[in-house]
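Why run this: before we spend reagent on co-expression, it is cheaper to look at a predicted model of the complex and decide which construct boundaries make sense. The entries below are exactly what would go into the expression plan.
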Amino acid sequence: MGVVLVARWQALHLERETFVALARSLVQIVAVGSVLLLLLRGPDWTSVLVLATMMVVAAHMSAQRGRGLRGAFVVSLSGIGIGSGAVILLMTLVGVIDPALTSVVPVGSMLVYRAMITNGLVLDRLEAEVRAHAGWIEAGLALGARPGVVVGPYVRAAVRAGLIPGIEGLRSLGIVWIPGLMAGMILAGEDPIYAAVYQFVLMAMSYSVAGLTAVVSAYLVRGALFSPADQLLVRPGRTPGG
Amino acid sequence: MTATTATTTTAATTAATIAPRPPVLQTRELGRVVGGVTLVDAVTVQVERGEILAIVGPSGAGKSSFLRLLNRLDEPTSGEVLLEGQNYRTIPPHELRRRVGMVLQSPFLFPGTVAENIQFGPRQQGSELPAETLYTLLEAVGLAGYAGRDVQNLSGGEAQRVSLVRTLANRPHVLLLDEPTSALDEATARSVEALMVRAIRGQQLTALMVTHNPDQAARVADR
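The model came back. C-alpha cells follow.
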C-alpha cells in the first residue's frame, strides 16, 4: 500500500501495475503451492513438463518487455529455454541438483525466474537504446556498416544491464541480505555452513543462467531489429512493420 | 511527393554518345505506402553523371522519404531503382549504401575524433583512408587541422561538414543530401553549402539534394 501511495505521489503511474502484480503473485503462489502438492507425488520425469511449462509462461511474460520488437516471444523462449535449461540439465547431470521431482522443480524454478528477469531486462534496455540512438544506427548503415556493427554498443549495454542484478546479488550476498533458501535451511535446522555453501552454489548457477540468457537473447533479438535488407525496424514512434 | 518525370541534357550525357551509358541513378514509378498512408507516390526520375539535382518541396511532402528509398534505408512498396543500370535490389545493402552515400539532416557523428568518424566508412570495407586523403578532404571543406578533434567540441556547421566528409570518404558514386543545412543559421548554412558544392564538383560526383528552400536549389543544382 505504501508503494502504491508513493507511486501516486510521484506520478509514476505504477499504482495499477503494483496492485495487479501483488494480487496476481498471491494467487499464483497459492495456486502453485496447491499444484506442487499434487505434482510432487508424481513420477520424477514430470519435472521436465513442469519446468517446460514454467519456461513458456516466463517467456510470455518476459516478452511483454519487448513488445515493440518483432518475434519477442520466440526470442524470450529461446533465451530462457537455453539459458536456464542448459544450466538445469548440466547441474542435474553432475549431481549438483538432485533429480528428484521435489528438488529439481523448486531449484529449477528459481533459475527459470532468473532467466525471465534477465531476458526482460535485456529486451527492455535494448529496445530503449535502439530507439534513442536510431539516428546514429542509421547513419552507420548509410555508411555501409553491417547491422551487427552499428547495434553492437547497444547490445553490449543491454547485456550489461541484464547482468547487473546478478552481480549486485553476488557482491552483497551474506552482507546486505541472507537469501531465502539459506534462511529457510537454517530455520529448518540445517548446518549454517552447509546452507551457506548450498546457497552460494545456487547463486553461482543463477548467475550462469543470467549470463547465458543475456547472451542468447541479445544475439537473437539483433535479428528482430533489422529487415532482411538491413533496414532498422525499431525507430522512435514506430513499431516493426510500420 | 507526386509523380515527376525528368530528362536532362548535360555535358556528361553529350560525352556519353561515344559509348552510351545508363544514367547513374534512375527511379521508375518508385513509391512507398505505410499503413495506408502514401509517403512517396510513383516518382520517376533520372540523374546523369556529374549532375546535381535538387528536389524542392515543403516539409512533409515526402522528400526525405524519397531519399531514404534511394539508399534503401526504407523499402519501396512499388517501383524500382536502377543504379548504373542495375536493379538495386540485386546489390547487397551494405555495398549499395557505400555507392549511394547519404548525408542526413542531422550529422549523427559517432563518439570519438573527427578522423575516427571519417575512417568509419572505409573501415567497414576493410580498408583505411590514407592520412593524406583524409587531410585533403578536410581541407576541401575548410576543416584543415581538425582531424584529431573530439566531435563533441564541434559547432553545428563543423559537425555537418564532418558528416559530409565522412560520406565522401566512402568514395560514393551518388551523393544524397537530405536538407544538410536546414539545422544551421543562414550565414553558416551558406558557407557549408558553398563548401559542399565545391567538394561535390571537385570530385565530379552525382548528387541529389532535397531542400525546402527554392533559392538554395537554384544556387546549388543544375536543375
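Strands of chain B lie at 25-34, 37-47, 52-56, 78-83, 86-87, 100-103, 174-178, 206-211. Confidence is low (pLDDT under 50) at residues 3-16 of chain B. Bring this page to Monday's planning discussion.
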